[in-house]
Specification:
single chain; alpha/beta; Rossmann fold; 18-stranded mixed sheet; 33% helix; repeat; LRR_dom_sf
Length: 1093
């Protein structure tokens, strides 16, 4: 039964009839009746009713129970059974229990002494068993009840029995009001059980951090109107019967302002101690709480002073297992008092429960009335899951016609309901001036924008936005999404808009403008003033407007100007007359989509500018000469077809992002864009006239650079430690002939595409970490340097190498590619998480290392007898450039079968997309981890013979008649692992040597004659595990490693070694490095082995 269910009785009275029926109980019953309190006594039983079931039903159907312990109470088994049932309901459904000790000593009940001890002894004699379950339950119930704070008739605090009864009735009335507070209406109980259960789960956890030793504290936090107080009230009404001293202190913020904190503290103490309201800070008064289990709820706290005055001393003296619940709009207040996981975050309601609550107020039922369904959905959508708004709107629309509903909902689009406004604005009123400016800017301009971008712009306005945004989040005025964007509830945003609009009826006298009609009026009629700080206008919402040349002249304090067009929409027509002569020098953000200006006004000062965004504009240049743009971070001039050059940005010391996509007239990039090495992103796609892109220095910050479709680009010389992806491809063909030699230093580069670079003649030494190389249709490409150095890299789980239609490749280059494919597939099979290797290059034969090959479409092989020897396999297909292949495209597949024709899982494919446009025969090599693992599974069946069928399909899976010229299978064996580790080690040593070259250049001498034969070195290691120190470490250092950088490299190298298994031969452990990187260190001059020790 719910704690808030309607009950038949207010009070159930348990008593021993022969002791107190005709005196105390009769007087108590009369007093309760006069107080309109419905009480159940056994006299209420109807004739013929079964006694015990009726008593149980009455107990369960009561809000509160009074247990009158008299001298002979324990003599009655009925009384004891009642007591057990009452305490059971106390535990299960929160039944409030008030014990009355009528002319008996509570300690006799607790210790089973006096008449209570005699009664228990009689029951034990009757049952003949002292361990009888019923007797044990009765004794436990007596002890528990005697420990509950109650009323003692023997106390001198009462003048007479009548005075005692008066106090008991007052206590009952108070507890009934706590159980069912007037403010907690039935409609408030929608969703309330769910919230209460979740808060109770927080309270049930063992807290590691407590404000005071005996008190567990949780916070209930959320924006205004979400029902924090309602949740706290409902929770309090459920929990208070379990506590000795309780207090729900409502409206702490308002009450402390009206009466002061000391007065409020007096109210708290008087409720906890049940004494007359007075402020008594004496420690002796506080100590009266020391033996009490206390429950305190502080509602709507908004300052640390309130917590300090109202909590600290009370919590210090509260008894064990006490609880403190705090509701607040400010999450920061709870930090340091509770942990983050002890704060209950109240969120807006879902649509179903929102509709239910709205309908309870609008229609006095849980579903909309017929004809009001759509209107109800509109109202619920407007409320945005805020219970307060749902209640206010529902009550306002109750018993109204559909015409009234339509009119009222239309009005809400322009004006927030005043009651909702007042509740929400409390959080805003608690902000300082800078925080208020931040809030209003977000409400008008930045909702849904990236948090870092917003902070950067607002910081430039002098608003200290980092801390300000955190304060707004703590006060539940904004939220930060998982993607890092700033979100704001629609009602909160409406409140912010109302604050600005409500302050002045004349739009040109408002600080911020975003309403389409108001902005259009101000700009068209030149009504701007120095009051205006920000303007936002959706240009797709206007049709034809005409702006004068001096439109912005009077707006000298304009900080923010956003004239934008949403994605997928088209701008209206903006006409202008004359030459624009002025823009505010205080602009921090300038966005003007489709700007008709050829350049910004000559008088424009960009010193404060943080971001300029002018896509699809007519500008040919931003400005002439050098501007002091130390605050400039982002430039977006995408699709500015007439832009010819960028200005000198040699003073843009914070520039991070430049987008020049589709600037077809752009001829060159001023080298100053790279001056300060702060640039992170440079987008130049579609700059068809751009001929050269060159940086005079190696960069560290540039992460993304794109020059796709730059068909005139002849010189590209930009390098950076941070570039992860480089796309030089072009659908129309690129003029790039060579890549800069410095490209080998791009150690962060993972993806390199030179697709359609038809004049590219060679690929010099590539960066070591490239995992995807696309050189498709590089028709002039003749030479490719060795790719071997890039294999065996930490974190690399796939490789994709594409040289499709590179028909000019010479034999050494093809050999390098085949060697790379061979080494990489062998390494991939030895690594647990490696997913795939896919390689394509021109050729008419399967490479020679494939021991199984055929000109048919299928091949059958026998697997090795021992599974540990076999770690995977590599597949190869040679496709012809037939007409169908060239025009329709094809997908290459391989299906594996066992001897009886059963398929081994699904077929594996070289690539998920079709291969098209082959100009010659091509070799396709691939390794698929999943496919290899399925084949390894047949060892469990005892089968060893497998068949591989190679075939070709179109994009929808239909088999094509295109034949395969040749197919091959290469088995990979486990004993070759030394070679893979050799490749890994050699790579890292060479990488370390490159980085540390300058440090060692003065004292390292290379000797090419030392240890060149890797096979001899490996054999020397594995035969006796010792090898020649002169051979492996032919290097003599004149000093120890003193460079911090080198120490880092060595530690990194040791980390790699620790993941390898030791090689143990002839009980020799001193070469515990597997093949280590000895093979690479062998290239360095002499060194004594003792330096490793």
């Amino acid at each position: 039964m719910s704690s808030w269910s309607i009950r038949k009785y207010d009070v159930f009275i348990s008593f021993r009839g022969e002791d107190v029926r005709r005196n105390f109980i009769s007087h108590l019953g009369s007093a309760l009746h006069r107080g309109n309190i419905e009480a159940f006594v056994d006299a209420n039983l109807e004739k013929g009713d079964e006694v015990w079931p009726s008593l149980c039903e009455a107990i369960h159907d009561s809000h509160l129970a009074i247990v009158v312990f008299s001298e002979n109470y324990a003599d009655s088994k009925w009384c004891l059974k009642e007591l057990v049932e009452i305490l059971h309901c106390r535990k299960i459904q929160g039944l409030a229990v008030i014990p009355v000790f009528y002319q008996v000593d509570p300690s006799h009940i607790r210790k089973y002494s006096g008449t209570y001890g005699e009664a228990i002894a009689k029951h034990e004699t009757y049952f003949g068993d002292t361990d009888n379950e019923s007797i044990q339950d009765w004794k436990a119930a007596l002890t528990e009840a005697a420990n509950i704070c109650g009323w003692d008739s023997c106390s001198h605090d009462y003048k007479n029995e009548s005075h005692l009864i008066e106090k008991i009735v007052q206590d009952v009335s108070q507890k009934l009001s706590l159980r069912s507070p007037v403010q907690l209406k039935v409609e408030d109980l929608v969703e309330i059980e769910k919230h209460c259960d979740e808060v109770k789960q927080l309270l049930s956890k063992n807290q590691k951090h407590q404000f005071q030793e005996n008190v567990q504290i949780i916070g209930i936090w959320g924006m205004g109107g979400l029902g924090k107080t309602t949740i706290a009230k409902a929770l309090f009404s459920q929990m208070f019967p379990q506590y000795d001293a309780v207090c729900f202190l409502a409206n702490v913020r308002e009450e402390s302002e009206r009466f002061g904190l000391n007065s409020l503290r007096g109210v708290l103490l008087s409720k906890l101690l049940q004494v007359e309201h007075k402020y008594d800070p004496e420690e002796s008064t506080m100590k009266r709480l020391s033996n009490k289990k206390v429950l305190i709820v502080l509602d709507d706290v908004d300052s640390l002073d309130q917590l300090d005055v109202l909590c600290r001393q009370q919590c210090k003296y509260a008894g064990p297992n006490s609880k403190l619940i705090i509701t607040t709009r400010d999450r920061h207040l709870l930090r340091g008092i509770v942990d983050e996981n002890e704060i209950y975050d109240v969120k807006p309601w879902g649509s179903a429960k929102s509709l239910e609550l709205f309908c309870l107020h609008a229609f006095k039922q849980r579903l909309p009335k017929k004809g009001y369904e759509k209107l109800s959905e509109r109202a619920v959508e407007y409320a945005g899951g805020v219970p307060l708004a749902l209640e206010v709107l529902g009550s306002n629309l109750c018993c109204r016609s559909t015409e009234f509903w339509v009119s009222e909902l239309r009005k809400l689009d322009k004006c927030l309901n005043l009651r909702i406004q007042n509740v929400l604005q409390v959080s805003y009123d608690g902000l300082d001036n800078l925080e208020k400016n931040i809030f209003l800017d977000i409400a008008f301009f930045f909702k849904g924008e990236d948090k870092d971008d917003v902070i950067r712009i607002l910081d430039a306005c002098g608003f200290c936005a980092t801390s300000g945004v955190q304060v707004l989040e703590d006060k539940a005025l904004i939220t930060i999404s998982y993607s890092g964007t700033i979100q704001m509830h629609d009602l909160i945003q409406e409140m912010g808009l109302y604050i600005v609009r409500g302050g002045c009826k004349d739009p040109n006298k408002r600080t911020r403008l975003r309403d389409i009609e108001e902005v259009s009026d101000v700009l068209e009629n030149n009504k701007g003033s120095d009051v205006v700080e920000g303007i936002q206008l959706d240009l797709s919402q206007i049709e034809n407007v005409r702006w004068k040349a001096d439109t912005f002249n009077m707006m000298t304090n304009l900080r923010f100007l956003k004239l934008y067009v949403p994605s997928g929409k088209k701008s209206g027509n903006v006409h202008h007359c004359g030459v624009f002569s002025k823009l505010s020098a205080k602009l921090r953000y300038l966005e003007w989509n489709g700007c008709f200006l050829k350049s910004l006004p000559v008088t424009f000062c960009a010193k404060m500018l943080v971001e300029i965004c002018m896509p699809h504009s007519h500008v040919t240049e931003l400005w002439q000469g050098v501007q002091d743009v130390a605050n400039l971070v982002r430039i977006d001039l995408s699709e500015c077809k007439h832009l010819k050059n960028l200005p000198d940005l040699s003073k843009a010391s914070r520039l991070k992002w430049v987008n020049l996509f589709g600037c077809e007239s752009l001829c060159d990039i001023h080298p100053s864009v790279f001056s300060f090495d702060t640039l992170e992103t440079l987008i130049l796609d579609g700059c068809k006239k751009l001929k050269s892109l060159k940086s005079e220095k190696h960069l560290t910050s540039l992460e993304n650079i794109s020059v796709n479709l730059c068909t005139s680009l002849k010189e590209f010389s930009v390098s950076s430690d941070s570039i992860t992806s480089l796309d030089l491809s072009s659908t129309d063909g690129s003029n790039v002939k060579t890549l800069p030699a410095s490209i080998k230093d791009l150690f962060s580069l993972r993806i390199l595409s030179v697709e359609n670079c038809r004049k590219l003649g060679s690929l010099t030494e590539l960066p070591p970490f490239v995992t995807e190389l696309n050189a498709m249709n590089c028709r002039s490409l003749r030479t490719v340097s060795t790719l071997r150095e890039s294999y065996g890299i930490f974190g690399v789980k796939s490789r994709f190498i594409l040289f499709k239609n590179c028909v000019a490749l010479d034999e050494p280059s093809l050999h390098y590619i085949m060697e790379a494919a061979h080494s990489e597939t062998k390494f991939a099979a030895s690594e647990i998480n490696y997913k795939f290797v896919k390689v394509c290059f021109p050729g008419s034969r399967v490479p020679g290392h494939f021991e199984y090959r055929t000109t048919d479409s299928s091949i059958t092989i026998d697997l090795p007898p021992s599974r540990p020897d076999f770690v995977g396999l590599c597949l190869c297909v040679v496709l012809s450039h037939s007409w169908g292949m060239k025009n329709l495209g094809a997908k290459i597949w391989c299906q594996c079968y066992v001897a009886n024709g059963r398929r081994l899982g699904p077929a594996t494919t070289w690539y998920d997309e079709v291969v098209t446009g082959l100009n010659s025969d091509h070799v396709f090599i691939w390794y698929d981890r999943n496919h290899s693992d399925r084949i390894l599974e047949i060892y469990d069946t005892g089968e060893r013979r497998v068949s591989f069928e190679f075939f070709v399909t179109n994009a929808i899976g239909q088999r094509l008649t295109i034949g395969t010229l040749e197919c091959g299978v290469f088995l990979i064996f486990g004993q070759k692992n030394h070679l893979y580790h050799t490749l890994v080690n050699e790579f890292f040593v060479s990488l370390m040597a490159k980085h540390a070259g300058l440090i060692f250049k003065s004292f390292i001498r290379l000797d090419k004659n030392d240890c060149i034969d890797i096979n001899n070195q490996e054999r020397d290691l594995t035969e006796d595990g010792s090898c020649s120190c002169d051979c492996l470490f032919g290097m003599e250092l004149t000093m120890l490693f003193c460079s911090v950088y080198v120490i880092f490299c060595v530690l990194f190298f040791i980390f790699f070694i620790l993941n390898k298994k030791p090689v143990r031969k002839k009980n020799s452990w001193h070469l515990h490095f597997d093949t280590l990187s000895m093979l690479s260190f062998a290239r360095l001059k002499r060194h004594n082995l003792r330096y490793l020790n």
